[in-house]
Structures are given as C-alpha cells and as structure tokens.
Design a protein that fits this description.
CATH architecture of the largest domain: 2-Layer Sandwich
Mean pLDDT: 80
GO molecular function, one term: phosphorelay sensor kinase activity
Helix content: over 70%
Keywords: Coiled coil, Kinase, Membrane, Phosphoprotein, Signal, TPR repeat, Transferase, Transmembrane, Transmembrane helix, Two-component regulatory system
Radius of gyration: 35 Å
Protein name: histidine kinase
Organism: Adhaeribacter swui
Largest sheet: 5 strands, mixed
Strand content: 5-15%
Distance between the termini: 78 Å
Strand order of the largest sheet: 2-4-5-7-6
EC number: 2.7.13.3
Low-confidence stretches: 1-19, 651-666
Number of domains: 5
CATH class of the largest domain: Alpha Beta
Length: about 675
C-alpha cells in the first residue's frame, strides 16, 4: 500500500485522474502528503462529492481554502474558492457564492492563473444570471470568452457558450440559446468532459419546452439523464427529470409527466438543496392544480413558500448588490491610490524642476559675476539680471499653480468623503426596509397568489375553500401586525420625524392598551391588572412609549396560558422611572434571552400556536433608545417573564407640566 501511495505522489497530476474513487482519495487524506498535494486532494474530494452530497463538497472546499490560506498557496486558494462558490450556488446561498468568486478572481489575478481567472469570470457571469442582473452577467461572460480564446482554454470557452445560452434563453431568444448550447456540447464531446456535456445536453433539451416541437428535446434530456446516472450526478438528475416531466405535460401525457415530476422531487430532497426542492415542488404544484387536486397543490405550494423563505432571493439580491458595490469600491480605492501615487510622482518631478530652476538661477548668477569680472560691462549685468528675474517669476507662478491644484484636490476629497458617508447611511436604511418587506410580507402574498391561481382553474368545494381561507387568515393577521410595527418604526426613521416630549399619564396609557387587548385576553381566560396610581406621570414621547407598552402586553398574552395573569406597575427610582410588564406565562429559554432585541430577529409560537413577526422587541428597543430610555427582561421557564422599561426623569418634571407647551426635539 505504501508503494502505491508513493507512486501516486510522484505523478504531477495524480489528483485529476477521473478513475480515482472517493474511498481511495479518503485513504490518501490520511497519508503524509505535501502542503500543495493536501490542498489539491481536498479540492478533488469536493469535486467528487458535488455529484452526490453537496454539503460534504462544501466542507472539503472550505478545508482546502483554509489550508491554502494557511500555507500561503495563492493559486490553490483561488481554485478552492471557485469550488466553495459552486457549493454555495447549489445550496441557493447566492450572496456567499458571489463573495467567494470575487475573492477567487482577485487571488487568481495575483497568481496570474488564467485557467482560474476564466473559471471565476464564468462563475460570476452565472451568478449574476441567477440574481437577474443580465448586464453584469454579459460583462463577465464576455471577459471569460475573450481570455479563453486568447489562452486557448477550450473547456473554459465551452462553459462561456453554455452561459451565453442561458442568458439568451432568459431573454426568450430560444433559437440563439439552442445554438450556443449545441456549440458547448460539441466541444465537450471532443474533450471527453461528460459532466459538462450532461449540463449542455440538459440545456439543449430544456430549451425545446419553449420551441414549436418540444418532443425534439427528449433525446437530449434522456442522454443527459443517462450520463448523470453513470457519473452519479444527483444534482443535475433532479433538474433533468423535471424538464422531461414538463415536455410530457406539453405533449398531453399527464401520467408520465406526474411520474417524472415525482422522481425529480425525490432526487431534489436527497440533495438537500433548497433551490432544487423549490423547483421540483413548483412543478408538482402546477401539475396537481391542472388535475384539480387542490389539497395536494396547496401542500406543494406551502413547500415552495418554505424553500423560498430559506433562499430569500430578494434579500440575497440586496446582499449581492452590496458585495458588488464593495468590489467596485475596492477597485475605486485602488484607482485612487494609483492616482495619489501619480500625483506624488508629479510633485517629485515638480520639485526636481524647481531644484533645476534654482540651480539654473545659481548658474546664471555665477555667469553674471563672471561677466562682471571679465567684461566690466554694466549693460551686460543689467541684461543678465533681467533674465534671472524672469526665471524667478516663472518659478513662483508654477509654485502657485501647484498649491492651487493641491487645495482643489483636498477640497474634492473632503466632499467625496461626506457624500459617501451620507450614501452609506441612506443605503443602510433602505436595505433594512427592503429586507424586512421582502422577507416577511412575501410569504402570505405568495400564498394568496397561489390560492387565486387555484380558484381560476375551477370552482372549489366549500370544504376546500374553508381550509384554504383559514390558513390564509392566520397568515394575513400576522402580516398586518408586522406591517403596523413596520410603519411605526419607518416613521421614526424617516427624515423629518420628530420626538415630541410632553407629560404622559402612565396609568391612563396602560388602561387604554389593556382595553385594546381585553377581548383577546378573555378568549384565553387571562386576568389583566393595572396597578399604576392615577397620579403617575412622566415627560416623554407618548407615541413611542405607547407602541412599546402595547407590544409587551400583546406578547404577554401570546405566551400566557388560560388562568394566567398579566400586570402593569411602576417603580420610582432616583433618576428614572421603571414600568414593569409581568406575566405568569411559559417563560423564555435562557439561550433565547440574549437573542431578544437584536436585528437577527427570531420568533416562537405562543401557548395556542400563535405566530409572531420577530420585529416587535427589536423596534421597542430602537424606539426607546431614541428617547434616552432602555428595556431589560427577566424570565424563568414555567414561571413567567417581567419586562422593565426605564424612562429618564427630566429636570423639567419639577415644573407644572399641565401649563407647559409641548417640546419638539429634532
């Protein structure tokens, strides 16, 4: 066995042999390998597992990245990052995939590794296609094509043709798309690259779904399926089975369409890829809706929504835009550094010119002295003096111009810094708004859209309608609650929103909020107690405090069982007032206490499986901080929770508040 390992290590390309099994690679992993060979072995294991277990492929790619970074093997790290980016793509983690490919491109350019550069350009083009940015996709794919032709990278060029086919298919130019897919397949047959050939054949068959004779796509799809079965590429197998199902559906053979659709879904589940599961579930939902089996159609619609929430494509688009902007900002900074270096070189040249002028002036002076000594000519001295003065004037004019340019450059730099700071603040607020809206409002409206699509097909039974609308009612109630919270928070964030300080009667504010939730408490048999005295007042912003108290009481009802109790009371402290909202509910787990009030929000179901949005406590904390207040929580499992809101006492509190005007603090 040792001789076998030694012989393998002596081969320079041992890790690229196609007949190497995973078991033999794992055996080599425990051998005494060199640094570069160890990184290459992890890369090869990642490639092998890309067919069957994408999570293992991701782990081995990450190990290769870490080892290459540790050993400072730049070209190997770039190669490993390309594999890691592919794994993120298959798992539907587009933002992380984009970051990997940008870093891979940077390292490959440093190492002058054209093969990896072409692969990175191709991968970036594919990534931008996934997030619907056609302009950027075409840009990077053209870069990949130009470089691949220049260095005669046939495999890289075939991938370029495949990517171009995908882009033209997206633009509904199906004949052009098929032409590029066919070019890619022809090149890959000559190279003997079955894995890439299977992808091109799949694309050639799939595009026929949109052409006049979809049945002509079946031979390509079945050939791709045969290759995938041979090399055990389960990732592509699921998609190919789905395309076959769509062709049979168009041909009117619903039995075969349903058969292949279920096979596609089964293989998608085995891959554990949210992207694959989402595509297969969409196909089954559509087929069952066409057969008027609405219960199963809705079942797969729920799976689609669940997987789309995991993918969160809109959020990833924002992340991808941020990563792209960061990459462009880095390029801009590099250009600025180069510009600064050029400016420094220019300044150095100017200093040398000034020194030359000074030296020239000295020489002129010496010549003048010599002329005085030799010729004793007053006229000659006058002429020389005039020349020296003219040279000195020219030097002063040049110095003033240089100083003026420096001042202008500094002023422009300060203006750009201020503008960048403002843009970052506005962009951060915009991203937070879009992330919340895309993540939380999308699900109920997708469900509503799916139900409306089902209703269009044919009238449904009363039982079916009641089942669907009961489910939708719960989702819409949760979305309305989230929207109300979002509107309060957005109003507080927008420019022009003011904090309005005025005397607020805490007892009255608590009473109003308890009355709003009284019916909900009665449904669960919960007792509400207002233990605040009538005279308790404080100077604060009523709208922000009102939102906080209402949210805490609603949460308390949600997590308190029948027969429980919720109370509101106050505690006077030296420099602040504390409002306590206590319940006898199920309490909060210790590991979840630290997750409250943070932006990576989470939610748990109530005692009657009530759902929440995860926004409330985060917004409470942010609104309270805007008025110099704070919030804490104490909880014990099975014994309930107590939330404390601390409000600062103002010196103005000693005045007669009822005779004071309202104070607006911008």
């Amino acid at each position: 066995m040792k001789k076998l390992i030694l012989a393998i290590l002596l081969l320079p390309t041992f890790l690229h042999a196609q007949n190497r099994t995973v078991d033999s690679l794992l055996t080599l992993l425990n051998s005494n390998l060199g640094k570069a060979d160890l990184v290459s072995l992890n890369c090869q294991l990642s490639r092998q597992y890309q067919f069957s277990d994408i999570k293992k492929a991701k782990n081995y790619a990450q190990a290769a990245v870490d080892l290459a970074s540790k050993f400072r093997l730049t070209n190997k790290e770039a190669e490993a990052l390309t594999l890691l980016g592919h794994a993120h793509l298959v798992l539907g983690e587009f933002d992380q995939a984009l970051a990997c490919h940008f870093k891979s491109l940077k390292l490959a350019e440093q190492a002058h590794d054209t093969t990896v550069i072409v692969a990175s350009y191709n991968a970036l083009g594919g990534m931008y296609h996934k997030v619907k940015d056609s302009k950027s996709a075409f840009l990077y794919i053209r870069k990949a094509g130009n470089l691949a032709r220049r260095v005669n990278d046939t495999l890289g060029l075939s991938k370029v043709y495949n990517n171009l086919g995908n882009l033209y298919e997206e633009e509904k130019k199906y004949n052009q798309a098929f032409s590029y897919f066919a070019k890619a397949a022809s090149m890959q047959r000559l190279l003997g690259r079955n894995r890439n050939l299977a992808i091109s054949l799949h694309n050639m068959g799939h595009v026929h779904i949109y052409l006049p004779h979809p049945e002509k796509g079946l031979p390509y799809l079945f050939e791709s399926l045969e290759i995938n079965q041979t090399i055990q590429n389960n990732m592509l197998r699921s998609g190919t089975l789905g395309s076959i199902s769509q062709v049979y559906a168009l041909l009117g053979d619903q039995k075969k369409a349903m058969q292949f659709a279920h096979q596609s879904y089964e293989w998608a589940v085995k891959t554990e890829s949210s992207k694959k599961i989402n595509e297969a579930a969409k196909l089954l939902q559509k087929l069952y809706a066409g057969q008027k089996d609405y219960a199963k159609a809705y079942h797969y619609l729920e799976i689609v929504n669940q997987q789309e929430n995991k993918l969160d494509l809109e959020h990833q688009k924002l992340k991808a835009a941020e990563i792209t902007a960061e990459h462009e900002r880095a390029l801009h900074e590099l250009q600025q550094k180069r510009f600064a270096a050029e400016q420094e070189n220019q300044a150095l040249k100017i200093r040398k010119q000034n020194e030359s002028l000074v030296l020239s002036a000295v020489v002129v002076c010496l010549l003048t002295v010599l002329l005085l000594v030799v010729y004793r000519s007053r006229q000659g001295f006058k002429l020389t003096s005039l020349q020296l003065t003219a040279a000195n004037n020219r030097m002063q004019v040049q110095n003033k111009e240089i100083e003026k340019q420096r001042t202008e450059l500094y002023s422009q730099s300060q203006t750009l810094q201020k503008q960048n700071h403002l843009l970052e603040n506005h962009n951060g607020f915009k991203n937070r708004i879009f992330t919340i809206i895309s993540h939380d409002l999308k699900t109920p409206f997708n469900s509503l859209k799916g139900v409306l699509a089902l209703l269009k097909t044919k009238e449904m039974s009363r039982n079916d309608l009641e089942m669907l609308f009961n489910l939708l009612g719960k989702e819409m109630e949760q979305s309305l609650e989230m929207l109300q919270s979002l509107l309060v928070w957005s109003k507080a964030q927008l420019a022009g929103s003011h904090i309005v300080l005025k005397p607020v009667n805490i007892q009255q504010l608590a009473t109003e909020n308890l009355q709003l939730v009284e019916s909900r408490a009665e449904e669960k048999g919960i007792t509400l107690r207002n233990e605040i005295s009538e005279s308790t007042e404080i100077l604060t912003d009523q709208e922000r405090l009102n939102f906080t108290i209402r949210n805490l009481v609603q949460n308390a009802i949600k997590f308190t069982s029948a027969g429980g109790q919720i109370s509101i009371r106050t505690e006077e402290q030296e420099d602040r007032m504390c409002i306590l909202v206590s319940d006898t509910g199920k309490g909060i787990k210790p590991e979840n206490l630290n997750r409250l009030f943070k932006e990576d929000r989470f939610t748990t179901v109530g005692t009657r499986n009530e759902k929440g949005t995860g926004l409330g406590l985060m917004l409470c904390k942010e609104l309270l901080e805007s008025i110099n207040a704070s919030i804490t929580v104490e909880s014990q499992i099975g014994a309930g929770s107590t939330f404390r809101v601390f409000l600062p006492k103002s010196n103005l509190a000693a005045l007669q508040w009822r005779s004071m005007p309202e104070l607006n603090l911008n």
